[in-house]
From TrEMBL:
EC number of the protein: 2.7.1.-
Class of this enzyme: transferase
Protein name according to UniProt: Carbohydrate kinase family protein
InterPro entries: PfkB_dom, Ribo/fructo_kinase, Ribokinase-like
Carbohydrate kinase PfkB domain sequence ranges: 14-289
Family annotation (Gene3D superfamilies): 3.40.1190.20
Keywords: Kinase, Transferase
Organism from which the protein derives: Sphaerisporangium rhizosphaerae
PANTHER family in alphabetical order: RIBOKINASE, SUGAR KINASE
Length: 319
């Protein structure tokens, strides 16, 4: 194992294009429906596996059919799922995502077993034995807001493990809980809304500076069509978005994290890794679901896409 993704696991059911909900018993015919392994831990794990990075995942799912499906999907893509526990009496987290023609994604969501994940469910050796631990969705995995888990992260980092963190929600009430993880994280990758909510800052530059002051060596704030802001002790850089046709924005944040992590493991510096994260996010935006367009993609190919700056696709939207 090289990477352990730890946190939120969700089954996504996606349909496109959806312009309205049918009245009564009416039926609308669509172009595509997919089921994917998603969430800030599971989605990132699948993307890493598709890039050829050895990855395991840890989290909680229910003893139900959705849990069976989620584990099967992750294993099919090459993710080691032995760290995912089954919770009797809990539903596996799931979302229904009607994707609009412009790529927007309203959702219907059941948080399910993710809310029950605790430090006792984890194998400490998985955490301390990984080169990178990616924390996915610490804002909603309340059972990990635990001094014992923080001590485990400290032990892992002392042994050379790099810790990255992404969030799941944009709910103000959950942001301050996630803030407690910052002293235990090397690179924090929130979106713009999350960064502003956590800090109360009036700009992303101010938010990045405030977040850096709380412990991370790097803060990477994703800005949608405006790209991302990369902040380290050496300064602040804006990484532009790539121009690509957008089908669905689901999982773009997870893809950004996966590309960033894979690039760091390949020896790239933080800003260069952010460019590969941007390229992977653009690739995912061109299809339906959090792992769209990644079949057969290698890190070398991803590097070429980042260097070309347009993903070899016509320019229509920025991701």
């Amino acid at each position: 194992m090289t990477v352990l993704t730890l946190g939120v696991h969700i089954v996504d059911v996606l349909a496109r294009p959806v312009e309205s909900i049918p009245e009564g018993q009416d039926t609308h015919l669509l172009e595509q429906i997919r089921v994917t392994a998603a969430g800030a831990a599971a989605g990132t794990a699948v993307d890493l596996a598709k890039l050829g990075v050895p990855v395991a995942s840890a989290g909680a799912v229910g003893h139900d059919e959705l849990g069976d499906l989620l584990l099967m999907l992750m294993e099919r893509h090459g993710v080691d799922v032995r760290g995912i526990v089954r919770k009797t009496g809990e539903q596996t987290a799931a979302s229904i995502l009607p994707i609009r023609p412009d790529g927007g994604r309203p959702s219907f969501h059941v948080p399910g077993a993710n809310l029950t994940l605790s430090t006792a469910d984890l194998d400490p050796a998985q955490v301390t034995g990984a080169r990178v631990v990616h924390l996915g969705g610490m804002d909603v995995t309340w059972g990990l807001h635990d001094p014992a888990f923080f001590e485990l992260l400290t032990a892992a980092r002392r042994g050379g493990t790099l810790v990255t963190m992404d969030l799941l929600s944009n709910m103000p009430d959950l942001m301050q809980g996630a803030r407690a993880f910052l002293p235990h994280v090397d690179h924090f990758l929130p979106n713009e809304e999350q960064a502003l909510m956590i800090t109360g800052a009036s700009s992303v530059e101010e938010a990045a500076a405030m977040l850096l002051a709380e412990g991370p060596a790097g803060v990477l704030i994703t800005l949608g069509a405006e790209g991302s802001l990369v902040a380290t002790a050496g300064g602040t850089v804006r990484v532009p978005a790539l121009r690509t046709p957008v089908v669905d924005t689901t999982g773009c944040g997870d893809a950004y994290c996966a590309g960033f992590i894979a690039s760091l493991l390949a020896g790239h510096e933080v800003t260069g890794a952010a460019r590969l994260g941007t390229a992977l996010a653009a690739r995912v935006a061109g299809g339906l679901g959090s792992d769209a367009g990644l079949g057969g993609l290698t890190l070398d190919h991803l590097q070429r896409l980042a260097d070309e700056g347009a993903g070899a696709l016509p320019a229509t939207e920025g991701i």
